[in-house]
Every structure is written in C-alpha cells, then in structure tokens.
C-alpha cells in the first residue's frame, strides 16, 4: 500500500527547501540553478508533492473530540476551561507559515516541466494543500495575510503587510480548490489526493464558511453554502463511493474504523499504518488509566435516538436510567462507539470486564480502538486513520441545503437516510421533524432561528454529531454554529441510583461498587470501584458522575485564537484578535 507521507525525500529536494524555517516568511528560496536542476520531470513534481502530505493531520484527528463537549479525558482541555493565553514565541500557537512557503515555491517552479499532464495534476495537488492550509488558518485566526508567492527577504511590503480580509482569503481558497478539482484526475487512490478528495475538501470548507458567516452575521453566507451543495452533490452523483457495510454485518460502523487496513468503498483518503513500520498511539490513549481515559459525555449518550427513531429523552425517566437500561433499543452506533453491556473488544469473542479506571465518564470510547493486545501499548496501534470519507459528503449536502432553505425529503433520502439505512434506523421525515422540534436538541443549540426548517436542522446536527463522533469535527461545528457557550455546561457521566453494587450487564453479577470510602461490603466479583469522595455524584449519594463543572467561553473573543506577541512586535501592521489584546 502506498504511504501517505513520503518518509525519505530525495537529497536534492531536501537541499532545495532546507532554508524554509517553519516560523519565518523572510528566507531566500532555493536559487534558480537548484530549481532548474530539480523541476525537470513529472517524477520530480510527484516527489516534491509527496512531502506536502505532512500538512495533513494523522491520528490527531481522533484526539480533537476529547477537547470538546463530546468526550472528556483525564482533564478538560484549555479551550474548554477558558484557559488559553496569548503565546509569546514567534510562529507558535498555529501562526506558522513554513508550509505555505514550500507550496508557493512549488507553484512558482512546477511549469518548468514539459509534461502537461504532470503539471496539471501536481499543481492541482499543491493548490489543494494551499486551500487546506489557509482553511485551517482562517478557522483559527479569522482574517490572515494572503501570500500567493514566495516572499523575498528584501520585500518589506509583503513581509510586513496587514491581514487581508476574510472575503479575499476565502475567495482565494475557493479559487485554489476549484483549480484542484479541475486538474487532479478523477481516480480512486486510498493514500493519495484525487479529484474526489478535493471535492470533499471544498464541501467541508464551504459548509464551515457558509454557516460561520450565517451564524456570526457575516455577508455572503449563501454563496458558500451553495458551493457546499454543488461540491457534495457532484461527489454523490459521481457514484465513485458508497457507505461501507462489511458485507451486511451488524457491526459495519465499528469495523470501518477499527480494522487494520482501509479500502476505497467509503474511505476517500486514509493515513496508512503498518506493523513494524509506522504506528500510532490511539489504542494506548483509549485504554491508559493515567493518560487518555476517554469517555463520552452523558449529553452525547442522551442524543442517540431509540431504535424506533424517537428521542431517548422523550422517556420521562431518561435522566435516571442506569447503564444497562439506557443502552437498550438504541441507535446501533451507540454501542459501536462506546462499550455497551456484554462488550467484546474488536476481533475477540470474550466479554471485556467493566473497567471505570480507563474511562473518565464511564462511557468508554471504542470507535477506532484496534484489537486488544500489543496495539494497546504506547505507539503500538497500526489501524489506518481515515481523513476523508463519503459519509461526510452526505451530511454536508443535507445541512447546506437545510441552511439555504432548499432541502426536500428527496434530499434527505439520498443523504441522511442512507446513513440511517446502514445501521437499520428509521428514516428522518422532514415534515415530522419540522412540526415537532426535539426540545432536548433545542436546548443544546440556542442560536437556530425559529423557522420552517428548525426541526430538521436540529436532526441533521444530531445525525452529524453521532455519525462523526470522535473524528475531530465537534469543536469546529460549535464554532461555526456560534455555540461556544456550550462549553460552560457541566459535563456528566454515568448515573447511579444509590451507593452499593451495580450490575452493568443484567446477568446477576455485580460489576461496579459505588462507595463513600468504605468498600467492605463489595461483592468479590466487582471489577470497578467508584468513590464519591473523589468523583462526586450530582445528588450526593445518587445521581450522575459530576466530572467538570463547566468552563468559560468569552464571546466573540474565544471564537478565534491569539497571534503570538513576537509576531505582533515584528510587524506593526498586524493587529491582535479582539479580546486578546
């Protein structure tokens, strides 16, 4: 299998970009002789662009939800606690530009090659990465300076320019990603950028920008939402991808993420990992009692529908159901994302004991957890990491059309309802959703205006949260929906009705013993203990585990990150983001 990141670039390329410090813009590019020596063949262009894959994230995408209201780990992240500070060092905190320099150097030299097909393909790939680079910058900082060329060290006008408008930057991003779509071949490659990857990136960027503008009161949101619709629709209508069903098995959703090697049924782009060659830490993070301890929040668990399509929170006793009861007759994705009763690790037939020491909330995360054994050790996992998959296109299509007010039931049937079909859930009915918005979801998202599509927008958000759980989208979703205040809510875990033993599997054998310091009455078979003096319950001797009493989110300040102090001192034309002065 080809590797998404080329580990050892050829020597001439290393020499050519050696001057590209990740924190500076004012370095000399490789001289004309070096460029002439290198940019000669299509193979040269391919070799250069292989190095650009390092711009993409790897397993870190599966760490991001642990810094949102989806998953809580050992401790709450800085951005949840409202503890972010202005960084001092130049180029820190995400304000780094070395990757952009590499991209622009390529785009200024690739046309030296005579191979027209190679020029089109690899310049398209370079512009894909530049679009991705700037998308990440705008998400983080808002307005940023646009650089479409390599800056010379004596070009003070460019070196010390102010930030360009969001409009200019995002129009430039759209131009780049459109160029990529037009020039990269429509071929399926698991570990390489293709036209299909570019279509999904365009849809992702456009949905973010369109909804961010809509909910933050910035002009031209419709333009970007329409671009999101057109890109996702083109991908859907291409017929190149479908949802992975693993031959119809009941655990296809779980298998998609935990299996060792991806295929190109649903996965558009994945990072390739191989035993003994390249590994990651996800298995360790999900199971180490002192490091990860990831657990779904109670709010997320409440958001999964019942198997008949009705809200779990419609039940009058939903907030006092204990673990076994609340896991019954739910959307199958719930127990393919968190360990349910009778949980067996991926690839095993043996039931896994309940272990609250490896999950902060009691709802242990199992999505993307590889088989038990060596892969649970530090650096031991080698299941491939999905970066782009077809399901996201279905979600984008439905949400963008709903926000534009053009959504129909037929649109839902080719998007959201395909996702529900995979797990055997009833279809989302647009008329019913709009006639009866779910009060629990309404309380979660206060910024949706009353209107004809409010109910279905709430249901699409629910579906997005469930389907993309633990894939790194949640924080960005809250930011674009202007729902940052959600981080101020308490984060809760499992509910316990009383002190004493509790049976998580309904098999007559106790699994967890809740106590106030005295464990003398615990049955011998208990596998986990919960001390309410260390982990309090909301009702004292009963209630939900109270794990985080809410953070602090200051609007509009915390929708953006601060620019480092040293960068501001070096460039008088840069202004700090509001609230970070």
Proportion of strand residues: 5-15%
Q: Mind describing the biggest β-sheet?
A: 3 strands, mixed
Structural class based on helices, strands and sheet pairing = mainly alpha
Cα-based radius of gyration, to the nearest Å: 25 Å
Report the end-to-end length measured between terminal Cα atoms. 49 Å
Shape annotation: globular
SS summary, helix count: 22
> Quick one: how many beta strands?
9
Side by side, the strands of the main sheet go 6-7-8
User: How helix-rich are the residues, as a percent range?
Assistant: 25-40%
Q: What is the average per-residue confidence, as pLDDT, rounded to a whole number?
A: 93
Parts with pLDDT < 50 across at least 5 consecutive residues = 1-33
Structure report:
It contains 22 helices and nine strands. A three-stranded mixed beta sheet has the order 6-7-8, with no helix packed on it. It has a two-stranded antiparallel ribbon with strand order 1-3. A two-stranded antiparallel sheet has the order 2-4. It is globular. The chain starts with 10 loop residues before the first helix and ends in an 11-residue tail after the last helix. The N terminus is likely disordered.
Characteristics:
581 residues, mainly alpha, two-stranded antiparallel ribbon, 22 helices, disordered N terminus
